[in-house]
């Protein structure tokens, strides 16, 4: 976000000439006065995100197909959509300087178009004229001629400065957190939470690299499953043959950089799944220590089934059985689909609230609580998420996390293992929950998660973990917190408890 394309000469007015240009001056089209299809695609996604609470990563591919965009225009629409959504708060601060009324008084489609135009002007290599004229054409086509004059005038004001010049102007009076928030396009409360968490894990000086990593596209990771008579390694071999690169971090995983993932045979068969290596790693940590045949496992919050599929695959190999629990019926259905390729003796799905799991009358030897959380550890994946989440979401989520942990402890067998996992590094969702749980349950011991995860890793993975700085507390030292900038994974958190045998 703090980087911008080199587009101006020393006088700061001319577009750069020569040198690599990602998008042509007229990209993707100055073909007509109707809305350009790539920009219209981005506009439609922004509208769905704002009006229907849609996820851009789900809506965008469908809109690209609907508009029949070619590869180049699809890339343009993707960069425009994700870049605009990610930096929305920063662009709104800039736009507030150029609009003569509070932004809330603008029609939402006009505000979305202004955000799209601002991203093109300040962060994409699109010529100023094309950025302004195409946005005006989009507004005329989609909103009406009335708003096009305002959009033209506002974007001309925005384009008077470069992004760096706007930052200089706007951050002069801001404190450090607000300034970082503006420059790296994160809400200040998230910057504060990240700073606090990094500090607790001995990484106080890594805030900027983390914020930068949140703004970069994540790699696509694959996991191979034990399913359909195949070993996990077979699926990975097939993926490698199709262009994936074997992971050097953990086994039965690969990194895919080759485009359309659904073309891989294993993905269609369900024996190869897209799953962040951080998620794979924490799920394997639960299954890591020696498994006795006949063990009963529970995934208390299983939807949509990523970790459940890996755990069921490991259960199938070891002769254990996984119960995958999920309260939302449509998500429970996704779990069933995810588990379908795996031997049916190894799993079952329960559709129900995790807080009432004791109703089953069962106890479990290994339980994962992959709790509903703010998702602040996966901001790379959901460009709109950081602006949608509010600090006011925390009390309800942390209360639910605590209730789910209580329910899990209640059905954990004596001597059993409990993994508490979040895809958030927020201290209130992680270390505070662990300390509260330990204080309520003297029968629980916090295990050292890092050596367990090291045992599961390949040399490069072991090195990544070993490079972790000293944490500030014994609790933090016992848990593992992964980070996008340090491990190349989502910021997954893992605490591993054992219930002492009576
Ligand atoms: C972080 S997601 C789990 C991701 C999943 N483990 C995976 O790897 O694909 C949290 C899940 O908890 C579910 N959930 C929400 N409330 C719950 C409750 N009261 N009991 C159990 N699960 C709940 C959500 O529907 C969501 O599917």
TrEMBL record:
Q: Name the keywords, alphabetized.
A: Methyltransferase, RNA-binding, S-adenosyl-L-methionine, Transferase
Q: Where is the active site?
A: 423
Source species taxonomy: Bacteria, Bacillati, Actinomycetota, Actinomycetes, Micrococcales
Name the chain's protein: rRNA small subunit methyltransferase B
The family line of this record is: Belongs to the class I-like SAM-binding methyltransferase superfamily. RsmB/NOP family.
What are the recorded Gene Ontology BP terms?
regulation of DNA-templated transcription; RNA methylation
Matches recorded under CDD domains: AdoMet_MTases
* Record-linked SUPFAM superfamilies: NusB-like, S-adenosyl-L-methionine-dependent methyltransferases
Q: Which residues form a coiled coil?
A: none
PANTHER family, per database record: NOP2 YEAST -RELATED NOL1/NOP2/FMU SUN DOMAIN-CONTAINING, RIBOSOMAL RNA SMALL SUBUNIT METHYLTRANSFERASE B-RELATED
Annotated region (Disordered), positions in chain:
1-36
Q: Which organism is it from?
A: Nesterenkonia sphaerica
């Amino acid at each position: 976000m703090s980087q911008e394309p080199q587009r101006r000469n020393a006088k700061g007015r001319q577009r750069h000439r020569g040198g690599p240009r990602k998008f042509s001056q007229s990209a993707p089209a100055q073909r007509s006065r109707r809305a350009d299809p790539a920009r219209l695609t981005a506009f439609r996604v922004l509208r769905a995100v704002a009006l229907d609470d849609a996820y851009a990563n789900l809506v965008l591919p469908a809109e690209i197909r609907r508009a029949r965009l070619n590869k180049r225009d699809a890339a343009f629409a993707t960069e425009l959509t994700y870049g605009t959504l990610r930096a929305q708060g920063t662009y709104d601060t800039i736009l507030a300087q150029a609009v003569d009324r509070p932004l809330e008084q603008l029609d939402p489609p006009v505000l979305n178009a202004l955000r799209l135009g601002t991203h093109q002007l300040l962060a994409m290599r699109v010529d100023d004229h094309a950025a302004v004229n195409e946005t005006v054409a989009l507004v005329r086509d989609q909103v009406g001629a009335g708003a096009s004059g305002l959009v033209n005038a506002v974007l001309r004001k925005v384009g008077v400065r470069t992004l760096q010049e706007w930052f200089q102007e706007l951050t002069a009076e801001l404190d450090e957190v607000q300034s970082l928030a503006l420059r790296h396009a994160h809400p200040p409360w998230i910057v504060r939470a990240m700073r606090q968490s990094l500090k607790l894990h001995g990484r106080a000086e890594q805030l900027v690299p983390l914020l930068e990593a949140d703004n970069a596209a994540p790699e696509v990771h694959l996991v191979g499953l034990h399913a359909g008579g195949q070993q996990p390694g077979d699926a990975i071999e097939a993926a490698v043959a199709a262009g994936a690169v074997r992971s050097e971090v953990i086994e039965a995983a690969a990194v895919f950089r080759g485009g359309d993932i659904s073309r891989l045979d294993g993905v269609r068969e369900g024996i190869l799944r897209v799953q962040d290596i951080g998620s794979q790693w924490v799920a394997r940590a639960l299954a890591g220590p020696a498994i006795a045949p006949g063990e009963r496992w529970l995934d208390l919050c299983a939807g949509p089934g990523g970790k459940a599929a890996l755990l069921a695959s490991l259960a199938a190999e070891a002769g254990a059985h996984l119960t995958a629990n999920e309260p939302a019926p449509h998500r429970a259905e996704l779990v069933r689909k995810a588990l379908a390729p795996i031997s049916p003796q190894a799993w079952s799905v329960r559709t129900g609230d995790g807080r009432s799991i004791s109703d089953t009358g069962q106890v479990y030897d290994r339980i994962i609580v992959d709790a509903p959380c703010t998702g602040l550890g996966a901001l790379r994946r959901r460009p709109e998420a950081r602006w949608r989440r509010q600090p006011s979401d925390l009390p309800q989520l942390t209360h639910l996390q605590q209730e789910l942990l209580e329910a899990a402890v209640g059905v954990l067998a004596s001597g059993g293992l409990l993994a508490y996992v979040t895809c958030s590094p927020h201290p209130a969702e992680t270390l505070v929950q662990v300390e509260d749980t330990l204080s309520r349950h003297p029968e629980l011991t916090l295990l050292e998660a890092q050596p367990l995860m090291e045992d599961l890793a390949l040399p490069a993975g072991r090195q990544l973990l070993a490079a972790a700085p000293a944490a500030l507390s014994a609790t933090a030292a016992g848990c593992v917190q992964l980070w996008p900038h340090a491990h190349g994974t989502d910021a997954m958190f893992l605490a591993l408890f054992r219930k002492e045998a009576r």
